[in-house]
Design a protein that fits this description.
Blueprint lengths: L1 H7 L5 H14 L4 H15 L4 H16 L6
Helix pairs in contact: 2-3, 3-4
Length: about 70
């Protein structure tokens, strides 16, 4: 349902796109990595993050991907 809602929006905000990336991670979706990379590209293009910020974001995404799946 989240994907359908995102498709209906004329412009998905960077923040909302990140929520979708996190949802993919929570569900163990194979779409996670591709969505995370697309989100990171937008993050770099739409802002002017410092290198340390980029490192934190990438680390967070990798940790999110590697986190054990849990419904709790």
């Amino acid at each position: 349902m989240a994907e359908d809602a995102a498709r209906e929006l004329p412009n998905l905000s960077l923040e909302d796109a990140l929520l979708l990336v996190h949802l993919y991670a929570e569900r163990g979706s194979p779409k996670f990595e591709r969505a995370a990379i697309r989100w990171l590209q937008r993050y770099l293009a739409e802002g002017s993050p410092e290198l340390s910020d980029i490192a934190k974001v990438v680390t967070g995404l990798v940790e999110r991907q590697d986190a054990p799946y849990s419904y709790e």
